[in-house]
Structures are given as C-alpha cells and as structure tokens.
Design a protein that fits this description.
Layout lengths: L3 E11 L2 E7 L4 E6 L5 H11 L15 E10 L4 H8 L8 E9 L4 E5 L2 E3 L1 H11 E5 H7 L2 H12 L1 H29 L1 H21 L5 H13 L1 H16 L10 H13 L6 H30 L4 H21 L3 H19 L1 H46 L7 E8 L9 E3 L2 E3 L7 E8 L7 E2 H4 L2 H18 L4 E5 L7 H14 L4 E5 L3 H4 L4 E5 L12 E4 L1 H13 L5 H17 L1
Parallel strand pairs: 3-15, 3-16, 8-14, 14-15
Antiparallel strand pairs: 1-2, 1-4, 4-5, 5-6, 6-7, 9-12, 10-11, 12-13, 16-17
Helix pairs in contact: 2-3, 5-14, 6-14, 7-12, 7-13, 8-12, 9-11, 10-11, 12-13, 14-16, 19-20
C-alpha cells in the first residue's frame, strides 16, 4: 500500500522551463514530449527536491533563481513524516510541502513544511520517499562495487549485521597495522632519540641541580667577590650613624638626633603638636641605633674565603653547562628532565607495545577471516534468491530464456601477510569483506553467463535494471519510483512488456516514467506531455495532461511522428486497448 504520493511539482526558471506545473497520479504517470522539450527537467527538479547537487548552470538564462516546489501526501506515521516533524516541519492536512531555491550565483536554500532546513535533510528523506533511476544508474550497475551494494541491499540484515561487525574489526586492524608499522619502521630513529635522552638525563643527574640554585649561587658569588668593599662600606655607614670609637670628637647622626630629641623634649608639654614631633624624633633615634647595630653585624659576618668563592664558581660553571643545552635556567632544565624521562619510558616500552600490537593484529586477522567467511556465506545465499527473482522478472520482460546469476568469489593472494586466513587460504580483503561480486547474464539457452557489461545489449541492460528494481520493490519498497528513459534501447514486444511490468509495479507504488516509447506510455494511468512554446520556453500550460483524443494524438506522434495519420491513430488506439486489457 502506498503511504506517500508525490502529488504535484511546480518548476520555475529551471533550464528550458519558465513556469510549469506537473500534476502526478498515485499510480503510473508517463511523461513524454519531443526531444529537447524539457522532459529531463522533470527528473532534475525532483532530484533538487530530494537534496541533489545544485548546479547554478541549471538556472534559466536571465533569471535570478530557479525554484522547485513539491507537494507530497504522506502518512503521518511514516518514517519520512516523523523525521520531517522532528526537524520542525508542519504537515498541512497530511501534505508535506518541500521547496528548493537555487540562485544564479550558486546559493541554495531548502524549506520543508514551511521551515528552513539544511539541504542534507532532504537527502535523508529521499531514501524513504523516492527511488530515482536513469541511464547513469544503468551504467553504475556495470561496476562490480555497485553490484555488490545491490546484493547487500537485497540481503538486508543477513549481510548488514555481520558486515557491521566486520567493518569495526577491519578499521581496528587498519589502525593497529598503521601503528605497528610506524613503530617498527622508525626503530632506528627511536633508538637514537632514546640514546640522546639518556645522555642528557645522565648529565643532569650527575650535577643534581636544585630548583633556584643558579639564582642563589649567583648572589653568593657576587657577595664573596666584593666582600672587602661591602665590609668597608658597612663599617663607614655604621660610623656615620653611631660614631667612630677611634674619633671621640667626631659627629655622627645618632648624636645629632639625640640632641634634637633633647631640645624638643624639654618643652613638649606646652604644645601637643611639638610633643608629636618629639616622639617621631625618638623613633628615628631608635631606628638609627638598630640599623647601626645590623651594619656592624653584617660587616663582621662577611666571609672573604677565596676557597668558598672558588667552589661557588665551579658549581655555577656546572649549572651553566646544563642551561646552555637544556634550558634558559635551572627551572627549565629540570622541566626538560621530567619530560624526557616520560618520553624515555615510552620509547623503552615500545618493544612491549610492539609485542602487544602484533598479538592484537594476529587476533584481528583471524577474526576477520571468520567474519569474511560469514559474509561470503550470507551473500552466496542471498545471491541465489536475488538472481532467481531477477530471472523470473526478466521472463515478464520478454526475456523468457535469460538467466541471471551472481558470481561471489574470494581472491587468493600469494603473500599470506597481504591477506587473511579463510579456511586455510590467504584471501585478499577490504572494507566490505573478501568478496568480489559480479552480476552475470546468459541471454539465451546454451549461452555462457557473462558479465552484464559484456553480455547485455542496451535494451537488455534496461530490462535487467528494471527487473532488479522490481525485485527491490518487493524486498525494501519505497513509495515512489522515477525512471528516466530506462527503456532506452527497448522496442517492439519487449517495450510492451516493460510497460506492462511498470503498470504492475504501480499497483503498490507510485511510478513516474520519462519515456519515448508509446508502448510504455500506453500503460500509464496519467499521461503528461511537455511542450515548448514558439519561443522555446516551457510555460505553465506547457505540461499538459493527455486524455481521450489528445492522448491518442500524442501516441500517434510518438509512433509515426504524425498526429493526424489514420494508420498511426489506429495503432495508438490499439495500444491503449491492449494496455487496458493487459494490466
């Protein structure tokens, strides 16, 4: 049951389209028109609505911006509706409005349910809403990687669950291998680094510097080197403050201050201000006496021992040797020593680390071997079911004798170190397992299965692609399918069968097909024609719904290029009648 339907798109200033409205039906809608009329713009517009790449070259010449708006009827319980509402979008009576604006300068904006959203969110919704397929998808199916992806998608959890476990182990193995290679290939450099660190640490340990020792020794060296001058200055200063015993008649500061104190002390009772000054003079006298006493002690304690000075200078020389090599001062030297000791521990532990990594690598390789085999088994089982289902679909697409198979192979490698052990064999492996997956086609009885890139014609490839998508629709359906000329290279009876199969697909999903084949268009529930005006633009009225006589005329044009040909009209009516009967 279809849970969402793309009801309408409005396209403005995109490519050859000036302003056009595309109204779609819930079932099978065919879009036709002359070559260059703008049919592909319908596909491009839907791609923009679904988060596709915005190319400013798509903006119509002379326009400032291209705008595509879409209206999708959704079930409020569907994943797409839930995701949209989580992003703040509002549903309008079960309808989700999407718009995409592309400026000529390359800026792109997206709106969902009336709310501005990142373009990437539209891409997330696309996976739930629409599957778009065209000629480029057919070419993509030729690549083995895409064929493996298609098989994995069909297999579902049977492959997805072990693949997720395998991918995690593969990434860890890649990281372990890289770290192991870095440790082993740089062994010489690491040994040289360790030797240099040990040498430096030994030098520092031999000296045993203390924090701040260089500063303290510098001060002591200066004091010892000028001991006589310092003692003489201290003695002279003391004599100036407290007097010289050898010169009783000399005048000193202490005597002068004492005289000043006596002079004011005698009359201090007459004025409180003078009493305050007397107290301050007394304090000065006390301070002078204290300083004089300390100067005397300083002079007597000075040691001019030349042996101590020599020892200090020798120690300073040892410290200077360290600061020249390991830091601007002893503090930085000690910090270097701490960092280097930590680094040396790491380097010395590399051998142990190499052993640990080697063991982990071997364990991971063994685990990957088991997981790779589990993936191969799951893919092989799914491949048989997938190929059988596609082969059955091809029988409905006028290829009754065609047979599709999948080749799931593990490639052995000569160098065991370059692979993983799978059942006693060294097998090449990658991020998705150890399998090479290839889709093979035998188009007729007795033919050898060949890769579809070599064994399928253009028309056969189109039908294989359609058959694959129909099988996907049964296993993991989406509400809407858009096919852009996937019927290229198909004609005659095969084209009728393609149309019939698309009509059957439309019973459970909305199907939109851009086609040039009248046999396919005849099966559509709704037939739209893209027409240009005389000036080469497609206007709103340029996308017309064909019904009754108009549809017969369009099919006649597609059949014979002559809308009024009686023979073509008869053939068109016959096609419509056969399509109605063959649904």
């Amino acid at each position: 049951m279809v849970v969402s339907v793309l009801e309408e798109m409005r396209i403005r200033s995109l490519g050859v389209i000036d302003d056009a409205v595309v109204e779609l039906s819930p079932g099978f809608t065919a879009v036709t028109g002359e070559t260059g009329a703008g049919k592909t713009m319908v596909v491009t517009s839907l791609g923009l609505l679904l988060g596709g790449r915005a190319d400013p070259a798509l903006v119509r010449a002379g326009a400032k911006a291209a705008v595509v708006e879409g209206r999708i009827a959704v079930d409020g319980r569907s994943p797409a509706a839930v995701r949209a509402e989580e992003a703040g979008a509002e549903l309008d009576d079960g309808t989700l409005l999407i718009s995409r604006t592309l400026s000529a300068e390359g800026r792109s904006r997206a709106h969902l349910g009336g709310r501005s959203v990142p373009v990437g969110l539209l891409g997330e919704l696309a996976d739930e809403l629409v599957a778009v397929h065209g000629q480029t998808d057919q070419q993509g199916l030729l690549r083995p990687a895409r064929q493996r992806q298609a098989l994995d998608r069909y297999a579902g959890d049977a492959v997805a669950v072990p693949l997720a476990t395998y991918t995690g182990a593969y990434r860890r193995l890649r990281d372990v291998t890289a770290e192991l290679a870095e440790l082993t290939t740089r062994a010489r450099e690491r040994a040289q680094e360790a030797d240099l660190l040990r040498f430096g640490l030994d030098e520092i340990a031999a000296v045993e510097p203390l924090p701040g020792e260089d500063t303290e020794l510098a001060a002591e060296a200066s004091r010892l080197g000028h001991a006589e001058a310092l003692a003489s200055a201290a003695t002279a200063a003391r004599a100036a403050l407290a007097g010289d015993p050898e010169d009783p008649e000399g005048i000193d500061a202490g005597t002068l201050v004492a005289g000043a104190h006596r002079a004011v002390e005698a009359v201090r009772s007459h004025d409180p201000a003078l009493a305050g000054l007397a107290d301050r003079i007394g304090e000065i006298g006390i301070l002078l006496a204290d300083v004089a006493g300390e100067l005397a002690g300083y002079a007597s304690d000075l040691d001019a021992d030349p042996r101590r000075l020599a020892a200090v200078e020798e120690r300073r020389a040892a410290l200077t040797h360290l600061t020249r090599k390991y830091g601007a001062d002893i503090g930085e030297v000690l910090a270097w020593a701490e960092r280097s000791a930590t680094r040396l521990t790491e380097l010395d532990g590399d051998d142990d680390r190499i052993g640990e990594l080697t063991a982990e690598r071997d364990a991971l390789r063994a685990e990957l071997g088991e997981l790779a085999q589990a993936l191969t088994d799951a893919r092989t089982e799914a491949a048989e079911r997938f190929a059988g289902a596609v082969t059955a679909e091809l029988a409905s697409l006028a290829m009754p004798h065609a047979r599709v198979t999948f080749a799931v192979r593990q490639n052995e490698v000569a160098d065991a170190g370059a692979g993983i052990d799978v059942g006693g064999r060294a097998v090449a492996y990658g991020p998705h397992g150890a399998d090479d997956v290839e889709l093979l086609l035998a188009s007729h009885p007795g033919a050898q299965p060949r890769p579809i890139a070599k064994g399928a014609s253009g028309g056969e490839l189109s039908r294989v692609m359609l058959a694959v998508e129909v099988v996907f629709a049964g296993s993991a359906p989406v509400p809407t399918y858009l096919f852009d000329e996937v019927d290229a290279g198909v004609g005659g009876k095969a084209a009728v069968e393609v149309g019939r199969r698309l009509a059957r697909l439309a019973r459970t999903a909305q199907v939109v097909v851009v086609t040039h084949l009248p046999q396919v268009a005849a099966f559509a529930d709704r037939h739209l024609v893209v027409e240009k005006t005389h000036d080469g633009a497609v206007t709103r009225s340029g996308v017309q719904a064909m019904e009754g006589e108009d549809r017969v005329r369009e099919l006649s044009r597609m059949l014979a290029g002559q809308e009024d040909s009686e023979l073509a009209r008869a053939h068109a009516e016959e096609l419509l009648s056969a399509a109605r009967a063959g649904r």
